[in-house]
Amino acid sequence: MPGTDPVKADACTVPLHRLPLRTRGRVAAIKADGSVRRRLLDLGFVPGTVVEPVRRSPFGEPTAYRVRSSLMALRNEHAGSILVKPLL
Known about the structure:
6-stranded antiparallel sheet, 6 strands, disordered N terminus
């Protein structure tokens, strides 16, 4: 993958859609290719960025995530491509 991730994916990382609500995490890696990867990066899911799931729909997806000062919704399929390291 192009570039170097500031936070390396390891045993402590989880897919973004598994991060509990109101728990902040730092993006460790994007495990997607092509246009999906480009879109996630364009939305601000850049390695090193802090994200927080703030709201889930009644059926479990999509989930609204706070990235920097923006709020955006992702389905589990795409959120699962983003690995995060939970912040305590």
